[in-house]
Prior knowledge:
By secondary structure, the chain is mainly beta. It is built from four helices and 28 strands. It has helices at residues 3-22, 37-46, 93-97, 157-160; strands at 54-61, 66-77, 83-88, 104-111, 117-125, 133-142, 148-156, 167-178, 181-189, 199-208, 214-222, 228-238, 244-252, 257-269, 275-284, 289-299, 305-313, 318-328, 334-343, 346-356, 370-373, 376-381, 384-391, 395-403, 414-418, 421-428, 435-443, 446-454. The radius of gyration is 23 Å and the shape is globular.
Amino acid sequence: MSFNHLHQTVLGLSAVLWTALVAVPSAIMAQGEVLSGFEEFSVAEVMGPSNPTSATVEEYDSVSETWVVTDNMQFSWDAQGRLSQLISTDSDMGGELGSMEGGLQKVALVYNTSGDMTSITISFKEDESDSWADLMRVVGTYNASEQLTEENTEMNMGLLFGGVDQWVTAGRNVHEYTEGKRAKTISYEGSELGGQQLRITEETVYTYDASGNLIEKLTKMDMEVDTLVNSEKYEYTYEADGERASEAYYSWSGSAWIGQEKYLYTKIENVGGGYSNVIVSQVGDGGGWENDTRDSVTYTADKVPTGAIEETWNGSEWVQSGRTSTSLDSEGRLAQFRTDEYADGSYTPVDRMTLAYEQAGIVLHGKGAMQQAQGLRLCVRHNVLTASFMVGVMSPVSLCVRDIKGRRLNSPAVTRTLSAGTHSLDIPLNGMAPGHYVLSLRSAGAVSRAVFSVVE
């Protein structure tokens, strides 16, 4: 099993969770292409606005007009609010390994003291009465700057062949950096069993503009000729504020790059608050790009997703094909995520996920994470910390950011006199070193605090 194959298996467990917690169409996942599989899993699991303890996934049976449970997922979180374990009853590991059909699948995640994910372990068992059997794992290594430098994919060959545990390296990604930016990734594949050596299967080179934005990712692969040849590349463009404007995927024909798929991103501020992200997907037509699908994702002012409208291009205009809707509980957490198809003027249910929680509290995550404490909600994205909160009566409100040593970083503190209601304030994070920080909200004599992280 290849390194990328393993990551797809790992991500398969979290794909529904990713979509539900972020509540965006799958097209947005294309932005994860700038990351490796190890990091992609990490980002996928920290993007949610809260920490659910379980989720029920259902598909709609149009014949009986009833919802049928297809998966029950259980989540465990460590003291810092990071996902530490995910268990699914809808295991596809049997299909991957042949002899093990059905059963349960578990993904366990381990972090170092800096908060970097150091390992992902996939385990399997046929029923609840069995013990967990570790099948494969990915182990990450970081440099002194906390940059991921190596990912080793290991398989338990002893378990596969009915013997004692015997972990064998089956794949490796080695990342190189220049001036703090990832410059190259070299991937190896094969098996070190019996003294064999892994061989290079692909090499990816990253190119950045003067502002440090990734503008190209080019991958060469070994096509069984013991030499690396062009295979695929991604090109990226950005708005003036640094937001990604487009992403295009090309494949190599042997003599030229052929456009295959392209995404265009537009942010629209909505009247009355909130905003929408419009994602247009295009396909290559041999010489240019042709519209394919369009997804319009809506968010509240504090960046909580509320739904999406899906459309397809019929050659002359956009025609609605489906929708994604979400519902929140009384504490603003995602309670349910549902998709419907649209045809002939009506909607037909497709699937839904219902999330359960134990209690509210501070959620500590990394990039793109929402956090909540005593009505204070934080969102860290694009070098801006957005704090959303409720004010009971008109009063002065003060926001102060301190590092873990208690030193104030935003001096003076952000202070406003606000009326009763829901408000959001932005604090730029430019220049802040990676690490954990505390934001304090003072209003009407009360103090609320929440922790957030800045990552590279």
